[in-house]
Amino acid sequence: MRKHHLSSADFSQLQFDNQFIKQLPADVETENYSRQVINSCYSFVNPRVVTAPQLVCYSPEMAQLLDLTEQDCNSPLFTQVFTGNALLAGMQPYALCYGGHQFGQWAGQLGDGRAINLGEVVNQQGQRFTLQLKGAGKTPYSRNADGLAVLRSSVREFLCSEAMHHLGIPTTRALSLTLTGEAVLRDMFYDGHAKHEAGAVVCRVAPSFSRFGSVQIFAARNDTVLLKQFLDYTIRTDFPHLGDPSVATYLTWFEEVCRRTAALIVHWQRVGFVHGVMNTDNMSLLGLTIDYGPYGWLENYDPNWTPNTTDGDLRRYCFGRQPKIAQWNLTQLANAIYPLVGRIKPLEEALQVYVTSFAQGWEKMMAEKLGFLSYQATTDAPLIDELLDCLTLTETDMTLFYRLLAHCDVSDLDKQASWFEILLPAYYQPQQLTGEIKARLAQWLRAYGQRLQQDNLSNAARQQRMNAVNPKFVLRNYLAQLAIDKADTGDFSMIEQLLDALRHPYAEQPQYEAFAQKRPDWAKNRAGCSMLSCSS
Ligand code: AMP
Ligand code: MG
Asked: Does any domain span residue 5?
């Protein structure tokens, strides 16, 4: 094979300690062909060698966490390694075996069909990270697909991972985005119009890439031995604070997964993120946002919106359903660990913890978005309900609305005209802001003003609180698409600019004002901006 192990003098700060493969059983077959992989948690497989690797972009913050310098990242070796052309000493590439429920149906074995883990790095601070290439070629889990990824979807994954991190939302990270120099055939809308696109690889980074489906696969196969082995490993490695694995620990572990998932979904609802494919293989056991595919950001607030055209009819994974879907997914995970627990009641109780923890987290989050000191059920529940109705009366940009609301001086009833002037940029059809719609909104703003009096914060103090939770910058769907359009012509400048702007999503950053504008009309029905598919 053309691959070579490079001496540890290169990137020697990357200390590999591959516990996952050390402690869990490997597929005995080492040939790389599509198959069912049983009695094992992963298969060894090498990334494929590509012709012309080229660095598009890297994340300086992620590099720093891995103790990599700017010089390291700009070296030819970096590009070779993170496109899959060279292995560093200590790397032992493998693909994970997992299953999952897709759109509500058990889909059997899925696995890393186009992701290859390079190994686990422990940084100077003792933090553990798995490095994973997405789009680096076929694995035993590729079924009849090609194991590759295109630039379009890779730009989206790279930028959104880092944007989520800077928003303070648990997520897998992205170290690098590279081009392979090879063309990949994709039928973007599965409508018979396949075309060649540029192949790309993202190096993803996370403490662990384990998913709900990683547990489910062993339960589905009635392999209780491996189920227990995998869960014990997960608890010891990723949840060491829970203590030694036991039936009691399985329950506290599951409860913690419920809490983490609740916290994650509260964050998504806070910023208007729609994952798009909340299948159980795309749910992280660590409560991270994982697998950026046909995700999108709410422009006008609409609980029924989903960016995923594949889900356009049923809208299973639309914005408003995300909390319920997470609960459904957790129920599948509970079913999967039931053989180890043997009792239903404590699992049901843990699922109830998800429900209450989500509800409380959501109320607190909404109170924060509105700048309240705390959530007061009697006043705030109806106020929030009415606001969410008001936001759907006429197309209202969610991100802009909350950001601008912080600037309204609602304490002064005489300033009503100024409220609307301030909020106007949030409206897609400002001419509709008349009559009943305007009256209802004015009434809500008055009630909001009264509610704020309870807390007695200054406008400046409230504004500061609100701006800390209501981002000014999110990866608007059309912005990602513009960056992709430019990247397709070989110009990566907008990727860099977006990466930079999204580093400080809560700051004003007037130099990036153009990235804080509502969706332009041309983007409303354009592919890639409002309509996406799983083709990536
Ligand atoms: P997703 O819903 O995109 O997370 O993908 C579901 C499953 O399909 C996972 O097992 C992926 O690894 C696999 N998959 C998606 N795209 C490809 C591809 N181009 N080649 C191989 N496997 C893929
Ligand atoms: Mg996936």
From this structure: no
Same domain (yes/no): 87, 172:
yes
Distance CA 215, CA 374 (A): 38
Q: What's the predicted TM-score (pTM) here? A: 0.97
In this prediction, residue 91 carries a pLDDT of 98
Helices and strands (H and E) in the chain: how many: 17, 15
* Rounded distance from Cα 204 to ligand 1 centre (Å): 15
448 and 519 belong to one structural domain: no
72 plus 117 within the same structural domain? yes
Residue stretches of the chain with pLDDT short of 50: 1-9
How many A from CA of 291 to the centre of ligand 2? 5
Are residues 283 and 390 located together in one domain of the fold?
A: no
Q: Are 402 and 506 in contact (CB under 8 A)?
A: no
What is the 8-class DSSP label of residue 427? B
Tell whether 226 is covered by a domain.
no
Q: What is the pLDDT of residue 9?
A: 41
Q: Give the residue from 155, 174, 154 showing the smallest Cα distance to 66.
A: 174
From the CA of 139, give the closest atom in ligand 1.
Answer: 21
Q: Whose CA is nearest to atom 11 of ligand 1?
A: 113
DSSP-derived 3-state class of residue 349: helix
- Same domain (yes/no): 88, 188: yes
Query: By residue range, what is the domain housing residue 445?
Result: 373-467
